[in-house]
Amino acid sequence: MMLRLDNVTKVYKVGAFGGKTLTAVDGVSFDVPEGQVVSLIGESGSGKSTLGKMILGLVPVTAGSITLDGAPVRPGKEYYRHVQGVFQDPFSTFNPVFKADRVFQLIREAYFPAATAADWDERVRAALRDVRLDPDQVIGKYPHQLSGGQLQRVLIARALLLDLKLLVADEITSMLDASTRIDVLNLLAEIKGRGLGVLYITHDLSLGNYLAERTVVLRHGTVVEMGATDRVFGRPLHPYTRQLLSAVPRLHAPWEDAEPVTSCLYHDGGATGGLAEAGEDHFVACARLEGCLEERLGGRSGGRLEGRLKGR
Ligand SMILES: Nc1ncnc2c1ncn2[C@@H]1O[C@H](COP(=O)(O)OP(=O)(O)OP(=O)(O)O)[C@@H](O)[C@H]1O
After folding, report:
1. Which segments constitute the ABC transporter domain (predicted)?
2. Number of alpha helices (DSSP H) and beta strands (DSSP E) in the chain
3. Do 65 and 27 belong to one domain?
4. Is the same domain home to 144 and 204?
């Protein structure tokens, strides 16, 4: 399995009558191979969820392409057999008036109508055990009788009942307490061990990033740095990545300012378009935060951005 994003762009129509546009994602390219976790980090509004929704077929792509094993995203029963999403607030996924395990019934009706009740019950129990839940503690309970971490695991169990290839995990640990968060992360590690690809979307450099083979850092809808996680975190090159890293409290280590950026690998290296290759599996955008934006917007930036650049 391989998910491939190639120059993906999303422009939303905003404002009254959709008269204005907002470019939420601008020319993003990366892959999620099977058996790997790729983490997508960036602050609020950087376009992470929009990317997740495009991969899940929930919002259409404006330009570029997203393919799974070479086939374009085609929202529908077949696609969702292989690609599922789990989101930040598990409570919002469950209807409070139905028992939590009803989510399994919906999967049975859509995908396994021929399964007998006994067979289905056994499959559900096995999936719950796979996510370290005791089936007897979950089956027959209402959502409010379960914790956020348990519900998150129920949703992962539901996804595992399908012939899943890719899981899009959007901020799935941000509402969980520290120990439950680690349980859910361990679960993701197991999932990738089964050969699934996971896109782990997060706004902070949480533990989840260390589970990821690759990291993509998104800012204002464009990739500023990406590559092998140990390279991106071990030798962050872009000022934005350094800023994100310096905001992480380090135990037993004194605070120190991030190393100043003295050169721009992108422009000094003569790169044009896309990202500059900084080393093996390590790519970086222009180091001048606004410079990249200026270049990206080209003539579209108008006087506003120029004014801001000159004023600095
Ligand atoms: N349906 C929509 N219509 C118009 N604009 C939208 C829509 N969804 C998102 N946006 C805008 O697109 C930009 C990117 O939003 P997105 O939710 O993808 O960011 P994010 O990085 O996931 O942020 P967060 O972590 O806060 O969810 C934001 O400026 C947001 O306001």
Report:
1. 3-245
2. 14, 12
3. yes
4. yes
Q: What is the CATH number of the domain that holds 28?
A: 3.40.50.300
Domain range holding 298? 223-312
Spatial strand order in the sheet of 83-86: 83-86, 166-170, 197-202, 37-41, 214-219, 222-228, 282-284, 276-279
Tokens (6 digits) for 306: 């120029």
End residue of a domain, out of 200, 220, 240: 220
Going from the Cα of 23 to the center of ligand 1, the distance in angstroms, rounded, reads: 10
Same domain, 113 and 34: yes
Point out the ligand 1 atom lying closest to the alpha carbon of residue 203.
25
Tokens of 85: 């999403």
Alpha carbon of 110 to ligand 1 centroid (Å): 31
Query: pLDDT in tens for each of the 312 residues of the chain?
Result: 799 999 999 999 988 776 789 999 999 999 999 999 999 999 889 999 999 999 999 999 999 999 999 999 999 989 999 999 988 877 777 888 888 888 899 899 999 999 999 999 999 999 999 888 999 999 999 999 998 888 888 988 888 888 889 999 998 887 777 777 888 888 888 888 888 999 999 987 767 677 899 999 999 999 999 999 999 988 888 888 888 887 766 655 555 555 555 566 666 666 666 788 888 889 888 776 555 445 544 544 333 333 333 333
